[in-house]
Specification:
globular, 14 helices, Rossmann fold, alpha/beta, 5-stranded mixed β-sheet, 5-stranded parallel β-sheet, 399 residues
Length: 399
């Protein structure tokens, strides 16, 4: 136990409080149990340690941060640590990297039943399941999903430009005022094109040269370790999943031909659909359907995008088309807080069943959506709105 407190103090002392993501303020830290899931590399562990520093400071024994991949847990259980911590007057037990501990949910449930006054915060992979057989935590645990950096956060983290969040409804109704506010602080187009390549993961400042290798390393870890562990994917198929992702990186937005994809990577059609679903859950892909109401299990998606444009630039072995990067960005930013469907013949995307969006460059016209109500163009390379033609970068201000 003393070793865990020593590790905690060392990590807290090394945790910067210079920039704290707005996500911090949207979490109900008073909940008896909460779980923060998200893609590998987006800063979940940093957020947890910043919360501890802000709430308890360094040196407190009222809180205990444990990363479940510590060697300590090779010989000690969650239940054992919780019991000792509780008896010492502990109030908050933070369990990071939960997906790296077998049967974590069963032990967490047992801790909650034995020590109901002990608050717990859990974090882990996007693939983490709160409903897991006989250890269903979905009713007692408040769940949150943490994405990578938005364009607004990129400006804050990397450029020192602090701008407020604007919900989508506000962006659509007050676009001129929002754009004027941003343009008074920076030239957004220059920064936006940098963001498409380098801005989503908060480790760019470590060493820009290593950014893409780190993104690729993160991707490989999800495929090689998390998918076999958390989705029971046959490890012998991991190479084929990487091949699938590579194919998609060259061709997204992908007009889906499952049979062709299956033939290219030598897997059965249903297996490919299943693996696409896993990659969507792991936040390596975004799968779009034209009608979410009628989507059934094992139904192929209508459109496939890599989860964020940085992944696209990191994994593509041919030059990335700017149109692809634009659409990838739009889906990524809109889908965090909204429901996004493939628009088919009615624009590129339908959002929350009521807004139609077409994505393009500065010269994009309304020809395809001219007669549709609540329709907008999200145009690259413009600084200010022109009627219902809005700057594409604006939707990066939503969180």
């Amino acid at each position: 136990m003393e070793l865990l407190f020593e590790k905690q103090d060392a990590m807290l002392n090394a945790t910067s409080m210079e920039i704290v993501r707005n996500f911090m303020d949207h979490v109900n830290w008073e909940a008896p149990m909460l779980c923060i899931r998200g893609p590998r590399g987006v800063g979940k562990s940093t957020l947890l340690r910043q919360h501890i520093r802000r709430q308890f400071g360094v040196g407190s024994e009222k809180v205990l941060y444990c990363s479940l991949d510590f060697a300590y847990f090779a010989q000690h259980s969650i239940l054992e640590v919780a019991e000792k911590f509780y008896k010492r007057g502990g109030k908050l037990l933070v369990l990071d990297e939960a997906h790296k501990y077998e049967n974590w949910s069963r032990e967490v449930k047992e801790v909650a039943e034995i020590y109901p006054s002990l608050q717990m915060v859990i974090s882990g992979s996007s693939l983490l399941k709160l409903m897991d057989g006989d250890a269903d935590l979905s009713r007692r645990c408040r769940g949150y999903y943490m994405p990578g950096l938005s364009f607004r956060e990129y400006l804050q983290f990397y450029k020192g430009i602090d701008l407020p969040c604007h919900p989508l409804e506000e962006l659509l109704s007050n676009a001129k005022e929002v754009a004027a506010e941003v343009n008074a602080n920076c030239r957004p187009i220059q920064h936006f094109h940098e963001y498409l390549k380098f801005g989503y993961y908060p480790f760019y400042l470590r060493n820009p040269i290593d950014y893409y290798p780190l993104v690729e390393q993160t991707t490989n870890y999800v495929i090689d370790v998390e998918l076999p562990q958390l989705r029971k994917v046959n490890p012998s198929n991991c190479r084929k999943i990487k091949a699938l992702l590579n194919v998609l990186a060259q061709q997204v937005p992908f007009d889906v031909d499952i049979s062709k994809m299956a033939s290219m990577i030598e897997l059965q059609r249903n297996t490919v659909v299943e693996y696409l679903g896993h990659l969507d859950d792991a936040k390596l892909l975004n799968l779009l359907y034209s009608d979410l109401v009628s989507v059934k299990k094992m139904q192929k998606p209508d459109k496939i995008y890599l989860e964020n444009p940085n992944l696209l630039y990191a994994l593509a072995t041919t030059p990335v088309k700017i149109g692809t990067a634009r659409e990838c960005f739009a889906v990524n930013q809109l889908s965090y807080q909204h429901t996004v469907e493939y628009g088919k013949q009615q624009g590129d995307f339908k959002v929350d069943g009521k807004w139609i969006f077409e994505v393009g460059g500065e010269d994009k016209t309304f020809d395809q959506i001219a007669d549709l109500p609540n329709s907008y163009i999200l145009a690259d390379d413009i600084e200010s709105p022109r009627g219902n033609k809005l700057p594409l970068w604006m939707i990066g201000l939503m969180y």
